[in-house]
Amino acid sequence: MKSESSQTSRQFILPIILTIITIVLGLLSFHAVFPDYPFWRKLYYTFQLFSMESGDRFYENGSQPSGITVVFNIARFLAIATLFITIALAILSVLRYRYFMSRMKLMKGHTILCGLGDVGRAFAKNLPDKGRLVIVEKNTGNEDLQKLKKDGARIVEANALDTIVLKSTGIHRARFLLASTGDDFDNLTIINYALDHVKVKEHGEGNIILVANILSRNLKMSVLEEWKRRIDPNDCLLKKRLAAFYETAIKIQAKEGQDNEADRLKNELAEARQALIAYNPSEEPVVGAFGVVKLFNVSQLAARFIFLQYPPDRFRSITKVDDPAMKVLILGWSEIGEELFKLCVQNCHFINRKKTSITLVYPHTEQIESKLGSRFRQVDQVVDFQPIQQNPLYLTSRFLLDHGLVQPDIVYICSREDRYQVSYCTKARELFGEKVAIVRPFYKNVILWKETNITNIFSFNILEKVCNIDNMAGESLDKRAVMVHHHWLKQAVSDYIDTAEKALANGRNIPEPKPTLVPWYLLDEEIHDDNRSVVDHLNVKLRSTGQLSDPAYYDCPEKSNINYGFLNDNTWVENLAEMEHRRWSANKYLYGWNPGKERNVLLREHESLKDYSELDDSTRNYDREQIKRMKDLLG
User: Fold this and answer.
1) Same domain for 456 and 534?
2) CA dist., res. 404 & res. 408, Å (int)
3) Total structural domains in the chain?
4) Engineered SS bond to 600: which of 93, 216, 605, 632, CB 3.0-4.6 Å?
């Protein structure tokens, strides 16, 4: 393990220079005295100067000329000085290292960053107090290490998978640990080690927060599902209260007519009912690894930022039923591009009732079609998706005309590399001029981009936009989605109580609580995505009514001057309710659901997956109520 290695290397430059000078002067001296000796023997005599043994051999042939004698004496005493200087510097280096490590062990409330790749670099830049940052990076040639060190960060040049290294960084007293090595399994290994060696306090209060970037969405979901299975149902307050209510109701039904226990069970049911009514989702303690570990996918964060700030209807609003369909053009493909495509499928449902057109231009669309076809099998039900196998650099006006791409509403540049981001953007600007908005994110700070927006080109470093502690550990992009789920949860619990009590009074089977009646952290990713979509689509709905015209309020619409008068207009409510149904249907289709006569979770069939006009009135009323609650959801 090395720390402060660059400074250590520099401090040994002087002994190295002195050693070279000593060897050169020694060779010259012994060559003058013993011209017939072989070179290796003279070199051996010279090296012996460092052990103070070969000085007398210089005078074996008698006295030497004064010039040669001076050169020899300089070499002899320089060898001794070099030896002592080297020993002194080595001791100082060890002492400095021990002092450095001792100071690091005494740090408190600091942040440990494991891996200084693109994500780690952006995170470190966004961290305001570099003096409380410890970076563990094995690549000693990383050009950003010295800059961060000058800013006050402490650098440990080592492999973060080394448990001794992590322990020495003061992990027991740190506030955050971020694993961003670029390898999912390495990141999980680091988190696993930290979990094993950090004492987790009750309910996660005051714990270190362990954060890891997991590039594979499937791996992330699998890990979260594994953690859910390890949680005792009794550890979840809501599950415990629902189980108590349900089991008591079953006992009352089973013991009907036995008066000796009827009163006691009725009292228990009343207590369980009261506990459920008093339940506050925001006060539910987070248990297990969920209270300490935050897994994020940087591509998801990046795509949500892009879609939130630069949605297609930012540049052409759709407020009328007869407005043309939205046209989205994606040039290139990447993990961020895939997540952005998914967000467009989920949320690009406007009041014009027309399918959004999404065209992908990429040299290897056959691979993308296969992947999207297996993952999003029903995507054609909600958008018109057109993949075109073509290098974006070779697009021509004739090609655009033949494929109906003369005037898209927005162009998203989605390559994996900055050089292609620039090239594709240049080609798009050449073809569309300033008439079409071009969104061009970058990954590194290079000369090819500027933060300023040039007319219709929106350019920014996407990693620096999203790689901060609020997004990665605080999950700030999900906070409104969590509130939406809490809002639904309170109502759903109340509805379940009413349904169960009616079933009990009428002698019918008492239904078990729905599996979605759980806190946010125990929900499936499908429900997470649906709640996120509810939040993201609120902005789309507001813009459809002519509200929220200022992009500055896209991430905080409640602060915008919104006129909610449209909620009193039945026509607007009906149109927005239909938009909401199409949004919900899109999320279901994305997760593999199909239309069916009745709901079947095993077969993933749902009776409401059909056109809004074909729904029964009670289902449409549910969508209408969603619209009427918009103000509450935003507030």
Assistant:
1) no
2) 9
3) 4
4) 605
Would residue 294 count as lying in a domain? no
Q: Look up residue 366 and give its amino acid.
A: E
Neighbours of 325 (CB within 10 A): 16
Whole-angstrom Cα distance, residue 596 to residue 608? Answer: 8
Q: pLDDT digits over 521-530, tens only? A: 999 999 999 9
In a domain, 630, yes or no: yes
pLDDT the model gives residue 260:
65
Domain boundary among 170, 204, 231: 231
Residue located via tokens 């507030």: 635
Cα dihedral 509, 515, 519, 524, rounded to 10, equals: -170
Digit-coded pLDDT (tens) for 44-75? 888 888 776 666 677 777 777 888 888 888 88
Same domain, 28 and 149: no
169 and 185 inside one domain:
yes
CB 634 within 8 A of CB 548: no
Helices and strands per DSSP (H, E), number in the chain: 23, 15
Task: Round to whole Å and give the CA distance between 178 and 211.
Answer: 5
Same domain, 89 and 133: no
DSSP-derived letter for residue 512 is: P
Same domain, 67 and 133: no
Residue-wise pLDDT tens digits, 144-196: 888 888 888 888 888 989 888 888 888 888 899 999 998 999 999 999 988 88
Average pLDDT over residues 117-136: 91
> Given the DSSP bridges, would you call strands 383-389 and 356-362 parallel, antiparallel or unpaired?
parallel
Which of these, 473, 590, 611, lies nearest to 532 by C-alpha position? 590
pLDDT tier at 100, thresholds 50, 70, 90: low
Boundary (domain end) residue, out of 231, 266, 290: 231
Closest CA to 420 of 341, 344, 338, 363: 363
The pLDDT score that the predictor gives to residue 1 is: 47
Residue 416 has which token pair?
Answer: 């994996």
Residue 485, pLDDT score: 92
- Looking at residue 324, the DSSP 8-state letter turns out to be P
Q: Is residue 153 part of a domain?
A: yes
Q: Which of 626, 633, 583 is nearest to 608 (CA)?
A: 583
Q: Which domain holds residue 569?
A: 524-635
- Quick check: 348 pLDDT over 90? yes
Asked if 463 and 581 sit in the same domain, the reply is no
How many angstroms separate the CA atoms of 446 and 417, rounded?
12
CA distance 457 to 401: 22
